[in-house]
Amino acid sequence: GESVGLHLPTLSVQEGDNSIINCAYSNSASDYFIWYKQESGKGPQFIIDIRSNMDKRQGQRVTVLLNKTVKHLSLQIAATQPGDSAVYFCAEKTKRRSGGYNKLIFGAGTRLAVHP
Amino acid sequence: KAGVTQTPRYLIKTRGQQVTLSCSPISGHRSVSWYQQTPGQGLQFLFEYFSETQRNKGNFPGRFSGRQFSNSRSEMNVSTLELGDSALYLCASSLDSPNEKLFFGSGTQLSVL
Predict the structure, then answer these.
(1) Is B62 exposed, middle or buried (0-12, 13-18, 19+ CB in 10 A)?
(2) Strands B74-78 and B87-94
């Protein structure tokens, strides 16, 4: 079936460096993408989203890039901090023909470890 | 504004029992989705409810069921529990709009012994 996956299961970075978390998706009909952050003992927390009519969107210290040609999504975190240590999930949605959206499909997740 | 509230936070059950989990969405949110999270399978979609109707369903056996009440609160039930049902069960709510950001609760950690 359709799936969303991640290239790297774990990513270790030094505090202050930039982090890049990658995600590949297989459903070419997907047109809405979200990044979530999940800290230990908590539910996933919304970080940033992007629609398929965009190729870049910026938030506070985070940037999401979308390459529809190769069906690739990435999350860039600038000046990574210890508080950024968590598991990051990409998720995708496709539009229903009848309107509205289908279920949100999550990737496997990447663990980001920030070292001082 | 209160976030998504899930109760109980932890549950321990034995095989063959049944369990009911509760979720209160963010005020004004009419869509409630349930996910199962395990280390091996990640986040798997169970079902979504909107206006007391199931709108989407994942690939789980019929032992997993849910419902939504008129105040948008939702419950999910798992009957005849199996060891493999041990997982974190997450509830998420959203506004019913094209940009459907899901807001998650902290989950219910279910352990089946």
Answers:
(1) exposed
(2) unpaired
> Residue A114's pLDDT is what?
96
**Confidence (pLDDT) at A8:** 46
* Token duo for residue B46: 């169970």
State the residue for tokens 């009440």: B69
Does residue A43 sit at the B interface (CB-CB below 8 Å)? yes
Q: Which residues of A touch B58 (CB under 8 A)?
A: 103
Q: How far apart are CA B98 and CA A52, in angstroms?
A: 13
Q: Residue A18 CB: number of other CB atoms within 10 A?
A: 12
> A98 vs B51, which has greater pLDDT?
B51
Could you give the CA distance from residue A105 to residue B45 in angstroms, rounded to a whole number? 7
Q: Considering only residues A4 and B106, tell me which one the structure prediction assigns the higher pLDDT.
A: B106
The pair of three-digit structure tokens given for residue B111, joined into one six-digit string: 């352990």
Interchain proximity B103–A109, CB inside 8 Å: no
